[in-house]
C-alpha cells in the first residue's frame, strides 16, 4: 500500500518566481520534493497584486493595503496549517512586528518549522525606499525564532555560527542553481569586445561604487562594455554602460553574454552574511569572476583558479586587466568555475541535503 504524501508548506515573503532568495532556496526544490512524496504549498505574505509596488517610491496606500492583506492571509493560515508535516519559513511569517505568528505555529500548534535565512537578518538595515517598514522589521525576533524552530537552515557558515548560539540543529544549506535545466548555457569568450557584467537587486547596487574608480581607469586604456542586470537603473559615471531590467526569463541569457563577472563588497558584518549568489551564477555560466575577499566569496572563489580575490584598487585593476586581455585565461577559469558550482552549489549536489531537512 502506497504511503500518503507528506505535506510541506513554504511560508515566504513574495509571490513565486520573483525573488532570488525564494527561487533558489525554495522553489528550486519543488519538483525534487514532489518526486520524493511531498505535496508542496506556497504561502506568500505579499501577493501578486501588491508586489509591483513594494520596492517603488511612494504608493503608500497600495503598500499599506498589501500589508493588511498579508496579515489577514496569515491569520487565515493558522486555521489550515494543521495538515502540514513541515513548514519552511523564510525570514519570518510577517516582515514586520513581533514573532506572534511564529509562537502560535511552534508553541501552540506544535508545527515543525525549518527556519531559513541567507543573510545577516539580525542586523537592522534601512532602505531609502522603505524606511518605515524596515524600522518596524523587529530584528530582535531572529534569535527567538531560531531557538523555537525544529531546524535552522542557513546559506553560509557565518550564518550557521550565529544560529548555533540559539539552536543545536543547524543545517548548512547553500544557495544553489539548477546547472542542468536553467544555468546551462556558457559564456562565449571569443569576442572582439569584452563585456564585464554585474547582476543583483537594487539594494546591492551600492557595492559597485567600490570598483567604479578602477573601471574608470581601465576605460582610459581599454574598450569594453559594462552590463548591469538589475531591477533598478544604476547611477554610474562610466562609459559603455548597458542597463538590462532583470526578469526570470532573461537572467541567464543576458548574463551569459558577459565574459567577466564582478562581486565587490565592503568589509562589514552585513556583507559577511551574504551567500555569494552573484558568483554562483557567474561561475555556473563559465564566467570567471573578480570579487572582494569577504565572507563566503573566499570559499567560492579559488584565487587565480576560477577568479580573483581583490583587496585593493591595484589588485582589482590587475585582475580585470588580465581577464580583459586573455581569452584563454577566461576560458580556463570559466571551466574551473563551472566544475566548482556543479560539485558544491547545484541542485545535483545539494538535493539530498535539502531532502534530509524534511525528516
Question: How does this structure look, described?
Answer:
There is one protein chain. The chain has 359 residues and is α/β, with parallel strands linked by helices. It has 16 helices and twelve strands. It folds into two domains: 6-173, Rossmann fold (3-Layer(aba) Sandwich), CATH 3.40.50.2000; 195-344, Rossmann fold. Strand 11, helix 13 (297-300) and strand 12 (307-309) form a beta-alpha-beta unit. The longest helix has 19 residues, at 60-78. It is globular and about 65 Å long. The model has no long low-confidence stretch (mean pLDDT 94).
Quick summary of this structure?
The protein has 359 residues and is an alpha/beta fold. Helix content is 38%, strand content 16%. The longest helix is centred in the N-terminal third of the chain and has 19 residues, at 60-78.
Q: What attributes characterize this protein structure?
A:
359 residues, alpha/beta, Rossmann fold, 6-stranded parallel beta sheet, globular
Helices and strands in order:
Blueprint: E1 6-12, H1 20-23, H2 30-35, E2 38-44, H3 51-54, H4 60-78, E3 86-90, H5 100-108, E4 113-117, H6 131-135, H7 141-148, E5 151-154, H8 157-163, E6 170-172, E7 195-199, H9 208-219, E8 225-230, E9 241-245, H10 251-255, E10 260-263, H11 269-272, H12 277-284, E11 289-291, H13 297-300, E12 307-309, H14 313-325, H15 327-344, H16 347-357
Parallel strand pairs: 1-2, 1-3, 3-4, 4-5, 5-6, 7-8, 7-10, 8-9, 10-11, 11-12
Amino acid at each position: 500500500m502506497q504511503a500518503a504524501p507528506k505535506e510541506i508548506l513554504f511560508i515566504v515573503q513574495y509571490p513565486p518566481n520573483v525573488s532570488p532568495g525564494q527561487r533558489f532556496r525554495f522553489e528550486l526544490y519543488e519538483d525534487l520534493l514532489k518526486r520524493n512524496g511531498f505535496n508542496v504549498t506556497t504561502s506568500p505574505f505579499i501577493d501578486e497584486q501588491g508586489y509591483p509596488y513594494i520596492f517603488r517610491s511612494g504608493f503608500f496606500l497600495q503598500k499599506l493595503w498589501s500589508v493588511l492583506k498579508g496579515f489577514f492571509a496569515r491569520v487565515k493560515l493558522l486555521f489550515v496549517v494543521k495538515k502540514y508535516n513541515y513548514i519552511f519559513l523564510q525570514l519570518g511569517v510577517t516582515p514586520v512586528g513581533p514573532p506572534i505568528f511564529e509562537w502560535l505555529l511552534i508553541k501552540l500548534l506544535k508545527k515543525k518549522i525549518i527556519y531559513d535565512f541567507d543573510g545577516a537578518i539580525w542586523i537592522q538595515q534601512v532602505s531609502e525606499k522603505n524606511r518605515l517598514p524596515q524600522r518596524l522589521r523587529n530584528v530582535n525576533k531572529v534569535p527567538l525564532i531560531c531557538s523555537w524552530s525544529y531546524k535552522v537552515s542557513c546559506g553560509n557558515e557565518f550564518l550557521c555560527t550565529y544560529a548555533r548560539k540559539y539552536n543545536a540543529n543547524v543545517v548548512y544549506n547553500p544557495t544553489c542553481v539548477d546547472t542542468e535545466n536553467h544555468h546551462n548555457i556558457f559564456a562565449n569568450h571569443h569576442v572582439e569586445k569584452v563585456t564585464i557584467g554585474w547582476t543583483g537587486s537594487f539594494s546591492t547596487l551600492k557595492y559597485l561604487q567600490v570598483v567604479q574608480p578602477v573601471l574608470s581607469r581601465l576605460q582610459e586604456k581599454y574598450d569594453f562594455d559594462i552590463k548591469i542586470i538589475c531591477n533598478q537603473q544604476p547611477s554610474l559615471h562610466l562609459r559603455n554602460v548597458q542597463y538590462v531590467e532583470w526578469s526570470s526569463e532573461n537572467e541567464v541569457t543576458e548574463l551569459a553574454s558577459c565574459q567577466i563577472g564582478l562581486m565587490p563588497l565592503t568589509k562589514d558584518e552585513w556583507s559577511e552574511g551574504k551567500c555569494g549568489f552573484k558568483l554562483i551564477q557567474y561561475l555556473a555560466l563559465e564566467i570567471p569572476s573578480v570579487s572582494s575577499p569577504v565572507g563566503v566569496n573566499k570559499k567560492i572563489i579559488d584565487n587565480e583558479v576560477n577568479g580573483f580575490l581583490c583587496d585593493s584598487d591595484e589588485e582589482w585593476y590587475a585582475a580585470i586587466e588580465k581577464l580583459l586581455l586573455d581569452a584563454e585565461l577566461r576560458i580556463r577559469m570559466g571551466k574551473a568555475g563551472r566544475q566548482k558550482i556543479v560539485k558544491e552549489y547545484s541542485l545535483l549536489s545539494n538535493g539530498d541535503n535539502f531532502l534530509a531537512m524534511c525528516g
